[in-house]
Structure formats: structure tokens, C-alpha cells
Amino acid sequence: MLKKIAWLGTAFAVGLATATSAQAAVSAAEAGKLKTTLMPVGGEKAGNAEGTIPAWTGGITKSPFPNYKPGDHHPDPFVSDKHLFVITSKNMNQYADKLSEGQKALFRTYPDTYKMFVYPSRRTAALPQRLYDNTFKCATTATVRDWGIDGCIGGTPFPIPSGSNSEQALQILWNHITRYRGEYVVRKASEVSVQRNGSFSLVTSQQEVSFRNYHKQYKSLAELDNVLFYYLSFTTAPARLAGGAVLVHETLDQRKQQRQAWGYNAGQRRVRQAPNLSYDTPIAASDGLRTADDTDMYNGAPDKYEWKLIGKKEIYIPYNNYKVDHNSITYKQLLQPGHPHPGYLRYELHRVWIVEGTLAAGERHIYSKRRFYLDEDSWNIAIADQYDGRGDLWRVSMAYLKNFYEMPLTWSALDVFHDLQARRYHVQQLDNEEDKIVDFSQPVPSDEYFTPAALRRRGTR
Questions:
Q1: Which of 4, 234, 369, 379 is most deeply packed, by most CB within 10 A?
Q2: Domains along the sequence of the chain with CATH
Q3: What is the largest CA-CA distance in the chain?
Q4: pLDDT at 130 over 90
């Protein structure tokens, strides 16, 4: 059951295997930039010199639609936007300096069908004010320490990366893994593996997540008792899998205590503790197209890799993707052979942080190298390029970001994992055909709700 975990990344402790402590807090003067030239979470407020990336002016802070209700499919604020141009295999060289290597590979792999519709860049990212206030405090107190972080709760820990190159790389990864996704989230969604001929079979589940590091009652990481979030999922379809469930306690310091997980078997009506799922363990529900640490673009202990910060660059990334999960589009329309239908996907030019991990000497993993492209405005990994043991580009993952303006926060509407060699792909978070999508409005359950005993009671009802 554990291998059916969908749509969420797991928290991980960031630090080199040999590290003991990496000071990362910046001075009060440096943190002051978060109230002047930088966004409250660290991105540059200014646009670019060409005017193709606008200045950030606050993003979308509430629903533009008065009749919107929590859990509804999001109406598109930019439905009247027209694309500026279309990148294809024939003209990709013209835009090569603003594409990831993975995107270029997708054009080469599917030269007749893969396209990127590029729209005006809209810097919609926004968070609640309390997150900005907490982030300002974290800038001068947060540190990467051994297999965890210290000195920050309820905000972005490292809005201004500092220290050595490798320290900055790890801080940026921490910003991704601890980014704000609400306090408690309920979602019914499906995942599929799309075969070469376009065929697919849905696995549907209801997922509930309690992000404890953003619960308002906690004032320090110590109060979390080393549990960053709780994850609970019940499979609802197909019938042969219905009733199965998984519960995860995601620990903050995984050296101190590993991730705890339990699976409920509906046929046996039993709850059993599951082994820790990590690194390159293949995910069964993905038909082997996604590893455990691919989920959420990246998660897990980073000790197998040597990390470095490549820098910041302008790249066409998935952004403001309201169309891709709208209920006017069916799964059959969206999921075509090779890749999702390009006409439903939106790309924009944004600045990204580029972080690269190279497999350390003596370590084993199916990926010899991984390169991540993180949106500077939200710290979401938007694109991940993964390389095989021979050093060849193998897999490309993309998170189709949008602003969940009812909160507000920026998160993925859809995650897609491409295997360039197998010419198949895996998709998470499909909810177009559901009555409701992500609902952040439900009351936060108590910790007892996320215990193995509660899992057993729910499963036997």
C-alpha cells in the first residue's frame, strides 16, 4: 500500500553525510532586503531588463471570483490570454538558452507532437501575511543542522541562501520541501501510467495531509516532536484495490527517527507497519516510472548526492496552469501518447534557481545526476532532469504550477514524470473528472486521527 503514495512530497533532512552543522542565517541588514528589493520569501521583486518577466507586485492574494467555493475547480483568471508563440522541434534551437535539457529531449523524442505554448509571464505567487512575517524571522535564525533544520517554523527557512555553494544548494532544497501547502488538505485524485499507445488505467484515492510545521499553535520545531506532517490515503478505485490505505508520519530529522509508515489491507482487515520507503525504490502504482524520491519532484535524505548551486537563470517553466485540471477537460482528452495534450498546458518565462546533485563516490542510485529548476517566487521545483548510470538523460519531471488563490499559495495542479527511454509517462493529481478538488477549508484533525489505531478503526467500518 505504501507504494501508492500520491501527489505529496515527503520532507527530508538536508545535510551532507559528513556534515555536522551548516550555519545559514543571514544578518539583520541582509534580511531587510525582504522588505525592499526582494519578495517576502526571497525572489527578486524587479522584472528583467527585456520586460519579458514583469516585476512582482504582490501576486494573487484572494479569489478573483466572488462565487468560488473551497474545493471547487478553479476558474482561470487568465482565460482570455493568448499565447505569444509556440516552441516546436523545428524552432527549439531559437529558444534553447531558455529550455532545460529535459525539455529539449522531449522535443527530440516526440518531434511531431510535443509543443510548448508560451504565454505572457504573470507573477501570481503569494502567501498569507503570517507566512511572510515568519519568513522574515527565519532569515536570521534558520540553520541546516546535521540531518535536519533548526530555528524556523511556519515560514520559508532560507529566503536568502548564504554560505558555501553546497550549503546554498541544500538550503534551496529545504525551501522546496518545507514550502507552504496549507495546514490541512483533503483531496480526491487519480494517478495513471500512460502507455506508448495512450492507454491508461486510473488508481483513485482520497488523501489527507496535516502539515504540522504550519499549524498556528506551534511556536518552535521542538513542539513538533520531530513529526513534520501526517499523510493518510484511502484507495477508492479500482475495485480490486479499494479499501486499502496507507498512513505516514514524516519525520523532520530522519537520522534521529526514520519515516514511519503503516499499510491497511482491506482483505485481511489488518494494519501492518511498512518498511521505510526512500531513495530509488520503484513506486508500484507508477508502473516503475517513478521512484520514491521522485515524488513531489524530489524528497528524502540527500546523502547520496554531492549538491551544488548552478545559479539562477530565465527558463520557460509550467506556470498558471488552470486549464490542465479544469473539469471541462476529460482525462481522455488530456492524456495522449507520449505526453499530455500540449494545448492544455501553459508555460511562462520565469527566473529559476538551478541545483544539481551528482551521485557521491561509493553510493548507489539509479540516477547518477539530477538537476532541479526551482521557481524563485515560490520555491517549487518546476522541472527535474534525471540521468542514468551512463550519464545519459533518462527521465524528465514537470510540476504544472498554479496559484491556489483561496489560500493563497503556489502548488502543482498536475505532476508528470516522463521516461524518455520507455516513451511512457506517469501522471499524479488527476482531478478533472472529480466533483471537488483540493480542499483546504476542513478543520484540522487532532494528532490521534493519524494513528495506526485510528487507521484500523476507519478501515473496518
A1: 379
A2: 2-18+52-79+122-127+188-459 (2.50.20.10)
A3: 63
A4: yes
